């Protein structure tokens, strides 16, 4: 019976190896090769079956040793890109990381046998990436749909302050990802888990005397294991910031080193220390204090303005209209207010420091704000990492009201900052007291309001009448840039946007490029087919969303609109006594959970007019990932309403 039981267990294990992925071993099994799909993601082009990493300190030379293993399945021809590997090696101050024991093999099934083809040394290339990085590159040979590629290597690093981070998530799904670390107690790191996905294993144990020093000294080690399983692929979609904000990973920042001889070196600063360094930094602190170079820039109409809010608006407009942004940020590098004034062109940092200095010189309560832009990622809050900031804004306090200002764009209204700056929070630099985190949220409302009043003209077989639109906030900003940049082209593009409408008599009522609102009016003619007995009308002459922007099965990262948003549309159709109403669109009133968004659509018949009203509101700037299913369904209903709503009329 025991022999029979062992045989059954062996057969069961063998069959499993043939029909399923082996997720806990670097060895390539028959199951890895024979399995042709990814159950967790039917759209996957490749699948990371197994990934393993280990970091520890070498006893002999105290180098940081990083070991890595990767086993990936190729599912489609598009997955061949996973066979192009790049390994980055850091170098600084005549020291560099070294790559050792690289081995890479392509596995295929040929004639019911496993065939292996190794990457040869002649096919491994090294190239300089920049002053601090070299890339080692290679491509797996003999790739086919169904191949399994496996590679491993070791990196020896003399840079203990660059402890190897670990990324669990990538552009393909991952079945198993494990990272092991052994950190000596004399190296103290700030460790943070990014991304919001949960670890299946997160353990830490103490190993005594794991690292030996001279004269009998030693250090204990914290031995940690981090495992994450069944990790979905990261796929980009609308309404997100940089992927670096969301990829599940572990990062390390060296805080303190304690030598065996008793010496202590601090690497991570406190905010008090960081504030002092920024205050004396030649590119930030010293430039912020250069008030003497700006004293004669403004004329008397600005400096003599008694109302502080109006004065601040005039100063902002002066900088916007006289200095051109060169499309660079240049925070902490090559910042010169003198050069900006001379050249009339400069970086975002220079332009906004000039704005800051002019406001301060004119007795406006003003402070700089360091931020990281949306494409740069969120800055760390738990300890200062100054290199994570890449942009400088200005905050003013007038009559107990705070405004964020930016002078890089002449179309920005007062209190409005570029969309790239809407990245949740920033660091307000108060050099007299201390810096602090503040939320970066728009002070102005953004919405689109469209009204159409159409009347049926039986002589032309068409509906004609005016359309009036009003846009505020970021909707207005986009329209202002297009219109004031080239009014003729704007009107031409507007006409081309309408397939079945002819527009005429276009005009705007906005005061100028700095106006918070953008308002326009134009007449439209919409020809209709009156040859049949019935007339079908889609009431949405203008559609806010042509298709659903949310297409993923699931989304593991937030939906970041940047700002609260509202869309309103109303249209009246005067039938002019020519038609009877046979059918009106189906009305609805729907909402997201917790009143995070609403949509309402209805029609009313008033004498001989059909009045259509639609309103869509997003009440949050950022929606957590658990809203995704609801948002996707919500937007699907919105798109369906705009594309498929019909008014059915019959000729009298």
The major beta sheet can be summarized as: 8 strands, mixed
The percentage helix is: 10-25%
Task: Give the overall form.
Answer: flat
* Sheet with most strands: strand arrangement: 6-5-9-2-1-11-14-13
CATH architecture of the largest domain: Sandwich
Number of domains: 3
Structural description of this entry:
- With 652 residues, this protein is an alpha+beta fold.
- The chain has eleven helices and 36 strands.
- The strands form eight sheets. An eight-stranded mixed sheet has the order 6-5-9-2-1-11-14-13. Strands 26-27-25-24-30-34-33-32 form an eight-stranded mixed sheet. A five-stranded antiparallel sheet has the order 21-20-19-22-23, covered by helices on one side.
- Helix 6 (308-322) packs antiparallel against helix 8 (348-361).
- The chain is flat and about 100 Å long.
- The termini are far apart.
SSE map:
Elements: H1 2-19, H2 30-34, E1 46-57, E2 64-74, E3 84-92, E4 95-96, E5 98-110, E6 113-118, E7 125-128, E8 133-139, E9 148-157, E10 166-167, E11 174-184, E12 187-194, E13 201-212, E14 218-231, E15 249-258, E16 264-266, H3 271-280, H4 285-288, H5 300-303, H6 308-322, E17 324-325, H7 337-343, E18 345-346, H8 348-361, E19 365-371, E20 391-398, E21 401-405, E22 425-428, E23 436-439, E24 446-457, E25 462-472, H9 473-485, H10 487-496, E26 501-508, E27 517-527, E28 534-537, E29 559-560, E30 565-574, E31 579-583, E32 588-591, E33 597-606, E34 609-618, E35 622-623, H11 628-644, E36 647-651
Parallel strand pairs: 1-11, 17-18, 24-30
Antiparallel strand pairs: 1-2, 2-9, 3-4, 3-8, 5-6, 5-9, 7-8, 10-15, 11-14, 12-15, 13-14, 15-16, 19-20, 19-22, 20-21, 22-23, 24-25, 25-27, 26-27, 28-36, 29-35, 30-34, 31-36, 32-33, 33-34
